[in-house]
Design goal:
By secondary structure, this protein is mainly α. Among the domains are: 70 residues; 44 residues, no CATH class. It is built from 6 helices and 4 strands; from the N terminus they run H-E-E-H-H-H-E-E-H-H. Strand 1 and strand 2 form a beta hairpin. The radius of gyration is 59 Å and the shape is rod-shaped.
Length: 194
């Protein structure tokens, strides 16, 4: 195996006591015995090749601008949290708004019912008045007091008489019932009477 290593390294490798060392073309480093700061001494090892490089990392120059990603991890997390919060609150907010609309509708119905109740109370107070009841009986039911004159318009003819003394039309009594029925149907249709 050492022969293979020696062949690969060509003339650069030198054998010295079984160890293969390579020449880099540079002068060998001479280590100084300067005092080392206390905080660096603990991290330094005894072998020079194993020491950490104290060089700073190469920073990008001003000619190559650093591109920032369009969407970063925290932005995605924040967007997901906002979306989760919106989805969580959508149902209760919709129920709240529906409840408010229902309360407004019930309040309007309550006001309408209060107005109707007040109207009915006023109507009851009017009907308890005897003069109002008498006037309604005369207008709606055509009631008359004894001795009053009643005028009723029947078929466009004015008939006068006392209460209970109206003359009935004689032609309706003389017609057979089926002809009276046909005549009333013709009158209802608007056609000529036969």
């Amino acid at each position: 195996m050492s022969n293979v290593r020696g062949r690969r390294s060509g003339g650069d490798a030198q054998r010295s006591g079984g160890r293969v060392s390579r020449s880099t073309g540079r002068a060998p480093r001479v280590h100084s015995t300067r005092p080392v700061a206390a905080n660096l001494r603990s991290s330094a090892t005894s072998r020079p090749g194993a020491r950490r490089s104290l060089r700073r990392a190469v920073r990008p120059t001003a000619t190559t601008p650093r591109r920032r990603p369009l969407v970063t991890g925290p932005a995605v997390l924040l967007g997901a949290l906002v979306l989760l919060l919106a989805l969580t609150l959508a149902g209760p907010i919709r129920q709240y708004l529906a409840g408010q609309a229902e309360l407004e509708q019930l309040a309007a119905e309550g006001r309408a019912l209060d107005e109707r109740a007040a109207d009915l109370r006023r109507q009851l107070e009017r009907q308890s008045d005897p003069a109002y009841a008498e006037r309604q009986a005369r207008e709606r039911l055509t009631y008359v007091l004894p001795g009053d004159r009643l005028v009723v318009v029947v078929d466009g003819e004015a008939v006068e008489g006392d209460a209970g003394t109206l003359a009935s039309t004689a032609r309706d009594e003389q017609l057979p019932w089926h002809e009276g029925l046909m005549r009333s149907l013709a009158d209802a249709d608007g056609g000529p009477a036969q």
